[in-house]
Write a structure and sequence with these properties.
The protein is an alpha/beta fold. It has ten helices and nine strands. Strand 2, helix 2 (about 45-55) and strand 3 (about 60-65) form a beta-alpha-beta unit. It starts with a strand and ends in an 8-residue tail after the last strand.
Amino acid sequence: MKFSDLHLCIPLRDMTQAKRMIAKSFELGYSQIGMSLPLSIKQDVIVQLHQVCEEFGLDFVTRLDLAPRGVGELLSSLRRFRRSFEVLSVLCSFKPVARQAAKDHRVDLLSFRAFEPRRRFFDWAEAELASKSSAALEIDMTHVLSLEGFARIGLFSCLRREVATAKSFGVPVVISSGATEPLLLRKPQDYASLTFLFGMDASLALEALSKNPAGIVERNRRKQSLDYVAPGVRMVKEKKTH
């Protein structure tokens, strides 16, 4: 089984630290890693990250995290940046943004603030919308590892409810690290074990670390190919005969 971590928060100004996190991901058993990239990133930095990943045999995935303050800002960003990144995540800090992100087929991942339970809007209405689009619910495990006391208890309560809702509506879940440093990285099997604390069984947890994230990347790479026309439609060039 090949494992993916679509949310590495690598310090791009410190390439030495970036290389450590890439190497650590490889050591822990990941085959594919996605990095959250700023819009201001230079092409030569992306090329360098590609090269480092290739040294370890890792599949490098470009990712953009959007944090829109309103629906208009979200739609504008989706129009401008969707085809420039292989994975696009939306931080749903406001209910109208969460609803729009859930139903928009250009959004890959729905993300929520771990520290603000009242701003976690993944309920049955949003799940129903997401079930008809291609959006998945993303859970960053760095918050599970770093929070303590009542904050952690509150997070587990939210996650149990959200995971159950996602399962009821057939919305895929993606487990990511969200790690900002090597010490926060864990083996995919360790993450899978931790998800038991918020109601995921082993098979669903492993899918959330392999099949689900890899499927998002594969789908978007098909869309970015030159022969893509529409979902399920590709252009086939006729072979010339002599």
